[in-house]
Structure formats: C-alpha cells, structure tokens
Amino acid sequence: PGLPAARVRSTFLDFFREKHGHLLVPSSPVRPRGDPSLLFVNAGMNQFKPIFLGRADPRSEMASYRRVVNSQKCVRAGGKHNDLEDVGRDVYHHTFFEMLGNWSFGDYFKEEACSMAWSLLTEHYGIPADRLYVSYFSGDAESGLTADEETRQIWLDIGVPPKRLLPFGLKENFWEMGDTGPCGPCTEIHYDHVGGRDASSLVNTDGPDVVEIWNLVFMQYNRDVDRSLLLLPQFSVDTGMGLERLVSVLQGKQSNYDTDLFTPLLHAIHQRSGVGPYSGRTGADLGKVDTAYRVVADHIRTLSVCIADGVHPGMSGAEYVHQSAVRSESSANQLSDQRPPPISCQIRVLCQSAVRSESSIMDVINENEAQFLSSLQQGTRLIHRTLNRMDNKHEVFPGSVAWSLHRDLGFPLDLVDLMLEERGVRVDHQELDRLMAENQKVASELQSGVRSQVTLDVVSLAELHGAGVPHTDDSLKYRYTLD
Ligand code: ATP
Ligand code: MG
Ligand code: MG
Ligand code: MG
Q1: Does this model's pTM top 0.90?
Q2: Which GO biological process entries does UniProt record here (predicted)?
Q3: pLDDT higher for 135 or 475?
Q4: CATH classification at residue 138
Q5: What SS3 string covers 273-320?
C-alpha cells in the first residue's frame, strides 16, 4: 500500500517543474566529471558546483539555470560522506540512493524554499505535520558563524510549533560537500515513524524511529583549502531528500528495505540463496541473516549503477568496490550456509569482469559463471581437506595451498582469508607473497581471467543511464534473475 516509488519520484519532479517553474535536468553519472575532490557523486548539488562558485562557462546551458529540479544518483562510500559502515546495520543508509532535489541559483532563497518544501510534504504527499520535526543551524562561535534565526522565524510563520523546531551545530546543520567547496547552513526535516508523542529528543540520534528525510542548504560560502570560509558571489538554495526514505514514509514502512524499491531484490536473493526469507529484523543478534540480505541488496544496486556509469575497479572507485565485495562475501556466507556463497560470486564477478570490460553492462554481467562456481566448490573442498589434515595447534594455513587455490582455481584470496578466519586460522602470507612474486606473470593473467555466469538483469539501469532522467515508471526498476 501507499504511493509506488516511481510515483513518489514523479510527484516531486512535477511539483517543482509544473507548479514552481523549475527546469528538469538529468541526473549526472555517479562518476564525478572533472572533480578530483570527489570519489563519487555524493549529492545532487555536485554537478552544479561551477554555478555555486560563479565559474560556470557563460556559453554553457548551465549558466542560464535559475530554478532546477532533479533526482540524482548518489553513492556514499568513501570520502567525506561515507556510509558504508552503516549499510545493512540500519534500515535507512544505503551506499547508493537517489537524491531528490530542487535548486535556486541566485533566485529564491530561504522563505520560498521552506514553504515549498512544507507544502509538498504536508499537502501533496499528505504527511501529517505533527510527525515532522525541523532542525536549524545554531551557530558556531569558533567559526564566527551566528545562529540562523531567520530560518527559525520562517518555520514559525509557516506554523511549525516551537517545540518541534530544534537547533543543531556544525555537524548536523552546516552542510559541506567535501573538504573544500560550496557549503552553508542548512535546515532539515525529520520524520517520526511512530507518532503520538514528543519525539524531539530523538532527532539526529541515529535511531530508526525518527529519521532525517530532507535537507535544505543555503549555500553562502566556499570552503577554501586553508579551511577559511569565503562568501559566494551569489546565494543559492540546494535541497536534497532521499527517495528511499521518503518512499518508506509514504508506504508506511519503518524500513527502506520494506518498500517496493527493495522487496523484489530481497525476494530474488532469497530464491537464489535458499536461505529463509528476509524477515525484516534489525539489531545485532536477531538480524545477522537479515543484515546480510540488506548488505547484498544494497551492494548489488550500487555495483550495478557504478558499472552502468563506467566506474571500474582500478579507477577511483576501486577501494570501495573491493571493500563491498569483501563485505558482500562475508554477508553472503551468512546466506549460504554450507553451499558455496552464491551472491558473493556474483558481486565479485561483477567487479572483476568490470576490470577488463569497457563494453556494455550486459557484456560485463553476462559472463559464464558456471566455471567460477565449480571452482569455488572445488576450492572449498580443498580448504576443508587441508584443514582436516592440519595439526590443531598449527594455526597457519600453508601458503602453497592458498597459492594453488588462486592459481589453479581462480579462487579469490580474500575469500580464503575470510573462510579461514571463521576457524581462527590464517594463511601463511609470507610464503604466499613469495610464491606470488615468483609468479607475477601468471598472477596478472589470473586477475583478468575470472569468469562468471551472472544473469543479474540491469537493462533498465542501462536505459536509465542512457536516458539520463529517472522520471518514468520504469526507471531504476531492478529485474533480477539471479540464477
Ligand atoms: P544522515 O544524517 O541520515 O546520515 P545526511 O545528513 O548525511 O543524512 P544529507 O547530506 O543531508 O544527509 O543528504 C540529504 C538527504 O539524503 C538526507 O536527508 C537523506 O534523506 C538522504 N540520504 C543521505 N544519506 C543517505 C544514505 N546513505 N542512504 C539513503 N539516503 C540518504
Ligand atoms: Mg550522513
Ligand atoms: Mg544528517
Ligand atoms: Mg543532512
């Protein structure tokens, strides 16, 4: 029940476009263009950075932008905004998410931005006002920044009661893109999933009950390399609302994973892994398997989008992709029990194939995984045989066996480590490194030779990438056939 995600998105875009004269611009790819200060696009404003700084090429279309709306594909894994550690452990941080945003470049400012946001949420989406809390910037003496009383007054005039208007400092209410770049005080809207109580003490406390949904940033400064704040040539508005969080509100779900953006994916993972279904539990003890489900679902989305947008391991995203592959593997182990970890191979293969394929996403994904899976099975048996033969006191796994797993079977070495870790055993890395060094040439060939049979269908993502604008019902529709 509730508004489907695609309608949530289109309602946002239409509101600003049709009712308030904003120009709809496409999402940029998640790989930043010409901005070395960023690993991934982490907010809707990234592509407009030159406008904020007053550096847009006057001949470019961008130079004429005054009011703009879009839905931006964002990745927060690395850099200033890195949510990798939260993903899966909570139900509202993803490494990939869509950010709905509206902008004013030297056009409207605080008052209009706040009243449009309030009207959209409470009148158009019909969210009860008594579930919403608003935070504003309380100032920071050290930086010489005063409290944003103007914004507080605007919210009071709109009708937000004083007890639901909360001041916060730099960390929460002064938005910065990265270590340098445009920044400014912000005001944020938070939603109480429970209701019928005073939840003001729960705002910005990292719990699942009261969640930040929309950030309205008033861009006034540029953070310089020496950390100083310089006034921007013109004041602008930059807003960002997480689509997944808004959808969870409008579908009456506490968890983003219980919305139509994720349930088909979780279902597919269930069918493929053969483990009990995703049960929606959170928390360390209850939710081990569920956490694994969430991590795998999250990372599949991210890797798909990254590959669609041309982020390949070995480029800027390598570190992330590597980390997520490892995390997915350990998560997938939770899902797979005795059997070779199915999801993990797929994610790993997505990464590894991407290393050598610059062609279409489907080429990247439609590899023959059968060989890889059987290698994994053989490798797992070899690991168990070796462990059984090992002296109990002997904690070091022979480097030569690890090497042969890698060389002969293409078995990922970090997976060997992970599997052994569970038994409290570690690989003899000294011996392994020596063998690797001796066989540099073989090793580099192996790197590029790993095969997969992933049938993860990301055609629609490819289309999204091509079309640029995620505003149709089909955009970001994941069709997974995980076997
Ligand atoms: P949080 O405090 O929850 O980490 P944030 O303050 O870091 O969020 P902003 O930089 O203000 O987030 O981004 C604007 C909006 O984007 C947030 O209000 C939220 O709705 C959404 N958002 C931010 N990070 C994520 C994420 N990792 N996954 C999903 N949505 C996100
Ligand atoms: Mg954050
Ligand atoms: Mg926040
Ligand atoms: Mg925020």
Answers
A1: no
A2: alanyl-tRNA aminoacylation
A3: 135
A4: 3.30.930.10
A5: HCCCCCCCCCCCCCCHHHHHHHHHHHHHHHHHHHHHCCCCECECCHHH
- Tokens representing 117? 């946001």
Residues 208 and 307 in one domain: no
Quick one: 104 exposed, middle or buried, by C-beta within 10 A (0-12, 13-18, 19+)?
buried
Return the closest-CA partner of residue 140 out of 172, 113, 169, 166: 169
**Residue owning the nearest CA to atom 25 of ligand 1:** 93
Contacts of 346 (CB under 8 A, 6+ apart): 300, 369, 452, 454, 456, 482
> Considering only CA atoms, which residue is closest to atom 27 of ligand 1?
93
Mean pLDDT of 275-287: 70
Same domain, 70 and 183: yes
Cα of 213 to ligand 1 centre, how many Å? Answer: 7
pLDDT band at 277 (very low <50, low <70, confident <90, very high): confident
Domain range for residue 115? Answer: 5-250
Q: Does 483 map to a domain?
A: no
pLDDT surpasses 80 at 254: yes
Which carries the bigger pLDDT value, residue 87 or residue 22? Answer: 22
Residue 169 and residue 143 share a domain: yes
Rg, Å, the chain Cα set: 24
- Percent of the chain scoring above 90 in pLDDT: 41
Average pLDDT of the residues of the chain: 77
- 430 in any annotated domain: yes
Domain-located, residue 477:
no
Closest listed residue to residue 345, CA positions, set 360, 363, 331? 331
CB-based pocket (< 6 A), ligand 1: 43, 76, 81, 83, 93-94, 97, 99, 212-215, 240-242, 244-245
Pair 301, 422 in one domain: yes
Token pair of 272, please?
Answer: 């493929």
238 and 310, same domain (yes or no) = no
pLDDT, position 237: 97
SS3 3: coil
How many structural domains comprise the chain? 2
- Predicted complex ipTM: 0.99
Better-predicted residue by pLDDT, 323 or 129: 129
- Report residue 236's pLDDT band, with 50, 70 and 90 as the boundaries: very high
Q: Based on the fold, state whether residues 236 and 293 are members of the same structural domain.
A: no
- Structural contact between residues 178 and 80, judged by C-beta atoms closer than 8 angstroms: yes
Query: Minimum-distance ligand to the CA of 210?
Result: 1
Q: pLDDT digits over 365-383, tens only?
A: 333 334 555 666 778 888 8
Specify if 232 maps to a domain: yes
Average pLDDT over residues 461-478: 30
